[in-house]
């Protein structure tokens, strides 16, 4: 049964927070600028295949065709 923070004493909560911070201090960090550059490179590399940019051909679009539609009257 998980213990909820509301059921813990202040000392237990602080101990739990300290343990989490000890774990996080060893997490490798990278500068935001490097992450942004990597993200831009990834997005630009995926651009030719992005259906939101290029669109979906009618023959591959499951929502096109003579499947009926919805008419609001």
From TrEMBL:
Q: Which GO terms describe its molecular function?
A: G-protein beta-subunit binding
Q: Where in the cell is it found?
A: Cell membrane
Membrane as a keyword? yes
Specify the G protein gamma domain's residue ranges: 4-73
Question: Which GO terms fall under biological process for this protein?
Answer: G protein-coupled receptor signaling pathway
Superkingdom as given in the UniProt entry:
Eukaryota
Q: How does it sit in the membrane?
A: Lipid-anchor
Q: List, alphabetically, the GO terms of the cellular component aspect.
A: heterotrimeric G-protein complex
Biological role:
Guanine nucleotide-binding proteins (G proteins) are involved as a modulator or transducer in various transmembrane signaling systems. The beta and gamma chains are required for the GTPase activity, for replacement of GDP by GTP, and for G protein-effector interaction.
Q: What is this protein called?
A: Guanine nucleotide-binding protein subunit gamma
Which species does this protein come from? Lates calcarifer
């Amino acid at each position: 049964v998980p213990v909820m923070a509301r059921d813990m004493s202040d000392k237990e909560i602080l101990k739990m927070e300290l343990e989490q911070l000890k774990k996080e201090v060893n997490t490798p960090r990278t500068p935001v600028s490097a992450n942004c550059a990597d993200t831009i490179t990834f997005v630009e590399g995926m651009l030719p295949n992005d259906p939101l940019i290029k669109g979906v051909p009618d023959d591959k679009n499951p929502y096109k065709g003579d499947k009926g539609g919805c008419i609001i009257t």
